[in-house]
Write a sequence for this structure.
């Protein structure tokens, strides 16, 4: 936990990267915010002394692509954050902190869901790269499937109508069998019902 | 000069307003003189906006730092190339540039058609002038590019001011593609105004039949081609410049450029239904309306910063103007449609589900599904914030998950559609046309899996890519064999002849093939590798079969920037292969640092090396190497797409057909016609023989 908040405190320290300071929706009280910042600046210095290696756990690496870098200056995931224009074109301090957190949590044996949940608690729902598959946000996932399906049904209906029209068009067509004619008439009789339906 | 520029812009607005009003009254009173006057005013807009653009460029080239826009986007040492491009580096200039490109299109449309379509052109002029009025209003009153620097003195009196040096152009934009990418994209965005204007004009004026489609076919293709080039250049710029080893991040602005491209693609396909069979009239009109609205939406997303994006250079209240314009445009379109909808009544018939017609329907369905998915994902954060009060992120993985299956299905249709005959395709013909390509695709899958295509989507993409390529090849082959057998020419001459007989059809196939190449390039993505390592002189890293050895770091100075450069020797399978020089440039005026990626590109893979700078932790230089398979196919595919579109724009050649005996002529014509599938023609030829 300490480590995670450490990243947050980090935001308040002057840094050379392009990232502007960001106001988190989670933070409500200034007092609490500063308290954390102060408490964790110390932890941060200890962190900074040991060089941060690239992510070590493969799961941590995969997870880092599922959370956004929350420095506020980039739209990339923590795993892909690279800040063109900054003094260092690799993951920024925030991203590196997040990567480290993820690694720590992975080594602690937490599940992917638990880790992501912890991230959401810390940074708010924007931290997730994909919308969560629940509540209102489920719509984000459902609509791209449902709308084409509805469209498919509509196209199907249109095709069926057009085929009926073609079947009913008399002139110049091939000779019509009695059986076909009977079916066409059957369908023609059904026609008014459908139009009433609409 | 700033007064001249502002004045020209103001006059341009007046001319556009006059063109709308005089145009409408010309139509209502049926006075040709009034319509002509409106047309001339429409053409004058071009001259006036050109003067304004000329003025702004003049300020850039004379380093006139009394103009705010020049101060913000230029400096003395900026190379002339980029000074020219600085015109579209910011909000005000971009919108002026939009107006200018639109006025070029409008001028060309009005000028080239000045003696044609007298009953249609007045409406077209009014619609185009209407769009111009909106953008010129923005240029004049909302985002004026000629704002001068001024500050109050001690007594509060405003005085003109002048800076000695500008802030410089955003270093991200100081890259050759950046000079071409925005104009191409804007030419695409503005170009779709032309088919839009004609569609609305035809509807308003109840212009007979499919004529508006014939008139705008080339315009639409030109706009589509520019849009494609713009998107691809943007991808290449992102790839070569941003240094993250990717080319498409599903950024809102990237999405915004993709949306009208998708509906434009759908439109280019579905108009064929109307041309050949008189079907889908309502659909086509709405498709072109939608495309235009999406162009405006795209411009709005780029310019207003409604959704956060790296492209939203300036965030302002300009969004509400665009929303207003979108609503008005939609209402006008809807009113025109509602009033004249009986004019669009078409006799839609479908003989068989297995036919070209239905394949077009599904093509449109899939394209619109893709368009919806992208639009939905792009705007969902806004919607979510509106409904739940909190923003969420919709990032690249979402778009990939949703769009990859859709895209693959589209690829399948690209192979199937063109081989189906109009009206009806028999089961035998299906078997004959598809057995080989399908077998070839499966074979490619069987070979591809063991050599590395171990990702389900990539494997499917490979199978479908080969399938589509073989269907295209068989189409060319079959047609060419018929011609070669008849004329006794060799197969290559026959291929040329075949293509030139029906440039639209065969150009279209070339475009399809280009798309296949792009898809194959994208299919390489799951196999990307990357490695980041702190590397001092003499240290090395190993990625794939490459070993990268760090030789030196040096420092370069130019007027515009200072650069730190790494010299890397690359060994391939143990042998020295090449040198790479990734750089970090720090621009003098802005003090912003940019990475200049070193890329060693080959058809199979790109070795992409970024000098990321010194590690904040250890102070050692960090090298980030990527191994990216098949990327080159995307750029190559893009070139093929553009060439194919160019081919489709050429007029059909109809040589010496008149001299041939009647029966042969009918075959040749049949080949030249896009109507029946070549398969059917071959059968007929065989039958005759």
């Amino acid at each position: 936990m300490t480590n995670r908040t450490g990243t947050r405190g980090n935001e308040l320290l002057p840094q050379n990267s392009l990232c502007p300071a960001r106001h988190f929706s989670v933070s409500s009280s200034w007092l609490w915010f500063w308290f954390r910042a102060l408490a964790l600046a110390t932890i941060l210095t200890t962190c900074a002394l040991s060089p941060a290696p690239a992510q070590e756990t493969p799961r941590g690496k995969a997870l880092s692509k599922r959370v956004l870098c929350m420095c506020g200056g980039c739209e990339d995931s923590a795993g892909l954050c690279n800040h063109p224009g900054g003094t260092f074109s690799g993951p920024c301090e925030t991203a590196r902190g997040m990567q480290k957190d993820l690694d720590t949590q992975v080594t602690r044996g937490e599940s992917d869901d638990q880790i992501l949940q912890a991230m959401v608690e810390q940074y708010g729902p924007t931290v997730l790269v994909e919308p969560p598959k629940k509540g209102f946000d489920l719509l984000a996932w459902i609509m791209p499937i449902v709308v084409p399906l509805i469209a498919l049904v509509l196209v199907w209906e249109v095709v069926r109508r057009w085929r009926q029209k073609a079947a009913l068009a008399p002139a110049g067509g091939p000779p019509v069998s009695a059986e076909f004619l009977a079916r066409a008439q059957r369908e023609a009789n059904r026609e008014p019902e459908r139009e009433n339906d609409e | 000069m700033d007064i001249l520029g502002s004045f020209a812009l103001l006059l341009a607005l007046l001319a556009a307003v006059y063109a709308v009003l005089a145009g409408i009254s010309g139509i209502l009173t049926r006075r040709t003189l009034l319509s002509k006057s409106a047309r001339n005013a429409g053409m004058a807009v071009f001259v006036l906006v050109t003067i304004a653009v000329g003025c702004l460029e003049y300020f850039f080239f004379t380093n006139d730092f009394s103009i705010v826009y020049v101060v913000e986007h230029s400096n003395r040492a900026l190379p002339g190339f980029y000074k020219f491009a600085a015109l579209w580096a910011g909000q005000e200039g971009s919108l002026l540039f939009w107006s200018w490109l639109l006025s070029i299109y409008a001028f060309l449309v009005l000028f080239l058609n000045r003696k044609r379509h007298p009953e249609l052109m007045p409406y077209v002029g009014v619609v185009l002038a209407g769009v111009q009025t909106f953008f010129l209003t923005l240029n004049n009153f909302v985002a004026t590019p000629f704002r001068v620097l001024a500050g109050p003195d001690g007594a509060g009196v405003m005085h003109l001011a002048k800076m000695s040096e500008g802030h410089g152009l955003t270093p991200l934009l100081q890259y050759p593609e950046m000079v071409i990418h925005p104009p191409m994209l804007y030419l695409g965005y503005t170009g779709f105004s032309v088919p839009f204007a004609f569609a609305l004009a035809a509807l308003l004026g109840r212009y007979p039949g499919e004529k508006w489609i014939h008139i705008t076919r080339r315009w639409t293709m030109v706009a589509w081609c520019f849009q494609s080039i713009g998107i691809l250049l943007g991808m290449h710029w992102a790839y070569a410049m941003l240094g993250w080893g990717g080319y498409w991040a599903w950024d809102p602005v990237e999405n915004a450029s993709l949306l009208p491209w998708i509906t434009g693609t759908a439109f280019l396909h579905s108009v064929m239904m109307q041309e050949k069979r008189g079907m889908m009239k309502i659909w086509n009109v709405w498709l072109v309306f939608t495309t235009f609205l999406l162009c405006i939406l795209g411009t709005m997303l780029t310019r207003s910063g409604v959704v956060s994006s790296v492209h939203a250079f300036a965030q302002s209240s300009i969004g509400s103007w665009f929303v207003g314009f979108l609503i008005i445009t939609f209402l006008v379109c809807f009113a025109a449609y509602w009033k004249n909808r009986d004019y669009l009544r078409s006799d839609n018939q479908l003989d068989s589900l297995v036919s070209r017609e239905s394949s077009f329907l599904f093509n449109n369905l899939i394209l619109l599904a893709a368009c919806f998915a992208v639009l939905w994902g792009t705007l969902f954060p806004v919607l979510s914030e509106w409904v739940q009060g909190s923003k969420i992120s919709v990032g690249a993985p979402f778009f990939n998950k949703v769009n990859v299956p859709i895209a693959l299905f589209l690829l399948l249709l690209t192979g199937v559609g063109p081989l189906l005959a109009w009206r009806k395709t028999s089961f035998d013909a299906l078997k004959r046309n598809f057995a080989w390509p399908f077998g070839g695709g499966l074979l490619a899958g069987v070979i591809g899996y063991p050599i590395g295509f171990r990702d389900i989507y990539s494997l499917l993409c490979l199978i479908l890519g080969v399938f589509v390529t073989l269907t295209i090849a068989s189409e060319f082959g079959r047609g060419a064999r018929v011609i070669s057998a008849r004329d006794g020419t060799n197969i290559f001459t026959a291929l040329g002849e075949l293509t030139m007989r029906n440039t639209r059809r065969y150009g279209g196939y070339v475009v399809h093939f280009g798309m296949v190449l792009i898809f194959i390039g994208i299919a390489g993505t799951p196999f990307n590798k990357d490695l980041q390592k702190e590397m001092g002189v003499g240290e090395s890293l190993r990625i794939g079969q490459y070993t990268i050895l760090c030789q030196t770091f040096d420092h370069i100075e130019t007027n515009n920037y200072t650069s730190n450069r790494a010299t890397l020797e690359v060994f391939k399978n143990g042998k020295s292969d090449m040198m790479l020089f990734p750089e970090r440039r720090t621009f003098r005026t802005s003090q912003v640092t940019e990475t200049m990626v070193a890329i060693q590109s080959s058809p199979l893979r790109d070795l992409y090396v970024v000098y990321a700078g010194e590690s904040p932790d250890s102070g050692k230089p960090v090298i980030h190497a990527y191994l990216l398979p098949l990327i080159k196919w995307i750029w190559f595919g893009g070139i093929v797409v553009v060439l194919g579109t160019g081919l489709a724009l050429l007029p059909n050649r109809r040589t010496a057909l008149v001299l041939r005996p009647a029966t042969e002529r009918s075959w040749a014509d049949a080949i030249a016609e896009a109507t029946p599938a070549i398969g059917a023609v071959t059968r007929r030829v065989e039958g005759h023989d």
